[in-house]
């Protein structure tokens, strides 16, 4: 599986936290975007490329006053087997496996090279024939080698969060990631961060585009999906309590609201896929 969307400018719904089982290469062309990935916040600039481990909950928060232009590539690691079996192969999946979610700030010649490869992939994709498909995949292998090389180089120390407000939101997200299954409330966050509840709620929404409790519920639902995938012996009730829901009905309602199916339907589908 190789999904390629070149220079997409399609608007996205605000606060669309999501995850997926495949890896992703994300390249930011233009716009104003704050990207939330797990417990990290990236304030993006043109030329930023993100190596993304898809199972981590992630969400772009964009400014609708500016065009939001990005290129995304979704791929299954197994599809790269032919490029990893050669005696001279390098493990181009290493950045995804070890760095998980990592931002490269490409500038100058490196930015030009990345954009050249992306444009070439698009031209081959547009051919819609077997030769074009194979040349696109070969170009993608070249892009992964380029990314691998960039990740080997020492990265300059740059502050990812340019303001006190964004540093505070980063601290909040780190706390929520560690305690999403606990009995959370704004008073708990206030005691931990030593700022007022109303201020914390406001800056979280300003930076991420969603509320604190939207983040918590989506984080719980995402963890439930992971448990259904990797621990299929667990019941729906066990999963609900493990991820922090006190009532099964609330868990089922939130799960269906976010994924369109009930937890039992999702669990049954995962079991069928594994058979």
Automatic annotation (TrEMBL):
Transmembrane region(s): none
* Domain HTH araC/xylS-type intervals: 170-269
Kindly give the InterPro entries that the UniProt entry links to this protein.
AraC-bd, Homeodomain-like_sf, HTH-like, HTH_AraC, RmlC-like_jellyroll, Tscrpt_reg_AraC-type_HTH
Pfam families to which the protein is assigned, alphabetical: AraC_binding (PF02311), HTH_18 (PF12833)
Q: Which organism is it from?
A: Paenibacillus sabuli
Task: Cite the PANTHER family for this sequence.
Answer: ARAC-FAMILY TRANSCRIPTIONAL REGULATOR, HTH-TYPE TRANSCRIPTIONAL ACTIVATOR RHAS
Protein name, entry field: Helix-turn-helix transcriptional regulator
GO MF terms on file?
A: DNA-binding transcription factor activity; sequence-specific DNA binding
Q: Which SMART domains match?
A: HTH_ARAC (SM00342)
Keywords associated with the record: DNA-binding, Transcription, Transcription regulation
Coiled-coil positions: none
């Amino acid at each position: 599986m190789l999904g390629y969307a070149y220079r997409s400018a399609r608007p996205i719904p605000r606060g669309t936290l999501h995850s997926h089982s495949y890896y992703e290469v994300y390249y930011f062309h233009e716009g104003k975007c704050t990207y939330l990935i797990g417990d990290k916040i990236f304030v993006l600039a043109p030329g930023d490329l993100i190596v993304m481990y898809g199972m981590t909950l992630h969400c772009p928060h964009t400014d609708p006053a500016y065009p939001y232009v990005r290129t995304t590539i979704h791929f299954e690691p197994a599809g790269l087997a032919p490029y990893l079996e050669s005696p001279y192969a390098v493990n181009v999946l290493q950045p995804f496996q070890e760095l998980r979610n990592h931002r490269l700030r490409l500038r100058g010649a490196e930015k030009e090279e990345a954009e050249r490869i992306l444009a070439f992939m698009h031209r081959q994709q547009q051919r819609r024939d077997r030769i074009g498909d194979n040349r696109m995949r070969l170009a993608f292998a070249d892009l992964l080698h380029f990314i691998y090389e960039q990740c080997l180089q020492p990265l300059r120390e740059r502050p990812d969060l340019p303001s006190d407000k964004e540093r505070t939101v980063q601290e909040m997200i780190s706390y929520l990631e560690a305690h999403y299954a606990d009995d959370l409330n704004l008073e708990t966050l206030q005691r931990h961060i030593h700022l007022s509840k109303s201020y914390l709620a406001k800056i979280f929404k300003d930076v991420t585009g969603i509320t604190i409790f939207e983040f918590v519920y989506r984080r719980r639902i995402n963890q439930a999906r992971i448990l259904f995938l990797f621990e299929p012996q667990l019941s729906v009730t066990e999963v609900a309590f493990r991820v922090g829901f006190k009532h099964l009905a609330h868990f089922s309602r939130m799960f269906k609201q976010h994924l369109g199916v009930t937890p039992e339907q999702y669990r049954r589908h995962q079991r069928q896929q594994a058979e």
